[in-house]
Amino acid sequence: ADDRGGGRIVKLLDFGIAKLLGEDLRGITGTGTLIGTPHYMSPEQCRGEAIDARTDVYALGVMMYQMLTSTMPLPASSLVVLLSRKLTEVPQPPSRHAPVPRALEELVLACMAPTAAGRPAGVEVVRDRLLASIGRGGATHPDAARAVRGRRVTFGVVALAMAAAAALWLR
């Protein structure tokens, strides 16, 4: 989209909340209302605890995982199963699903750490680690080196776009 000054701006939209508010979610949280898109909600958000920038880092980690693997980190057949898995499990490493460079995998998993204290403090830290991971080729999968050569530009563009969008959104 263009802003009034002629520059380009990024808009992130989430229509999941509108859909969720139409469901009967009593008993899911202490207040009876679940706000957020469940797959992208951090464990502390699922528990109804205080949230901060690290909740956004968690959601960014889920998006990166999904982009790298074409699957959700914790697939579930229902909302209750999903919330239970978020509170009791950690996702499989992305390299189990697709060739992913080690440094990028480590960052994605750090973003989805089960506790806020285990995650990067904010999107700026994620951006810096993401840019550093693009420069390193540490592979965990036998085909990762070949895949990275072919997809390095794609990873870089996606990573920069995600980091830029997140940084602009948090301003």
Structure, explained:
50% of the residues lie in helices and 0% in strands. With 171 residues, it is mostly helical. Helix 3 (53-69) packs across helix 5 (102-111), helix 5 (102-111) runs antiparallel to helix 6 (123-135) and helix 6 packs antiparallel against helix 7 (144-169). Residues 15-30, 137-141 and 148-153 have low confidence and may be disordered.
Topology summary:
Layout (H helix, E strand, L loop, with lengths): L15 H6 L21 H4 L6 H17 L9 H10 L13 H10 L11 H13 L8 H26 L2
So how many helices? 7
N→C terminal distance: 17 Å
The number of distinct β-strands equals 0
| Unreliable residue stretches | 15-30, 137-141, 148-153
Note the run of SSEs as H and E: HHHHHHH
